Amino acid sequence: MLSGDLASYLSGRYVEIKVFGLSFPEFLAFHRLQNTPEALVQYLKFGGLPYLMNLRLEENIVFDYLRNVYNTILLKDIVARHQIRNVSFLENLVKYLADNVGSILSAKRITDFLKSQRITLSPNVVLNYLSYLVSAFFVFKVPRAEVYGRKIFEIGDKYCFEDLGLRHTVVGYQQRDINKVLENLVFSHLAISGYHVTVGKMGDKEIDFIATRENEKLYVQVAYLIPHEKAWEREFNNLLAIKDNYPKIVVSMDEAIGKQFQGIGHMHIRNFLSEYR
Q1: The total number of structural domains that make up the chain
Q2: pLDDT by residue (tens digit) across 113-126?
Q3: Within a domain: residue 6?
Q4: Has residue 4 been placed in a domain?
Q5: Is 5 domain-assigned?
Q6: Domain that holds residue 38
Q7: What is the pTM of this model?
């Protein structure tokens, strides 16, 4: 049977198997590391592409490899496949997404930003380019949904990178971005663990992630540190407003963490990555 005939014969008859980068426990196993703060920083900085186990975890070596991966994805999987001519815009769009991980975005908001940079493109073109990045599994679109009910909002989504190391090849790994990086990390871990993930909306309140898997549901808020009472109110009150009995967790990098606050769990990011699998 010719390959073309085979493709026609199999049309519509395939099963998609999603393959992700390494989870944090897998990263530790591949690199023979202990679950330490230093190992977490390496994972946050370099990401979870399996081939890294063949390299020394040093910035100049790892990021040289990751830049080659990034260029291959961009040029072969996106530019060549979709016959994109405006490569410069595509690169600017990826940079914008990398700078705005964890933010609610829309095609109009991106278009308005590009106009401020003297780049004029219609929202439809922006949506097309975003879909190309999603279809290449370079970024994931995380839609917003009502906490109660099944309404999915058509405007405003979050975009998270499949691999943080690839994100850092675009804008670098910087401590000032740690909130964004942690939120991306939590999303990636939930996706790797088989959860369907949305951003929760309840009136004017936002829940970072609602994760569902079969009969399970989990609400997660992500913060870097929660240093004072106002920050506690901000992170915990949104979850306290949800009146159901599904688990609710605030994930942060605070070292002194109580097990719960008024029924809301509080976990260090390393424990969360190890226990929720």
Answers
A1: 1
A2: 877 877 777 888 88
A3: no
A4: no
A5: no
A6: 18-275
A7: 0.89
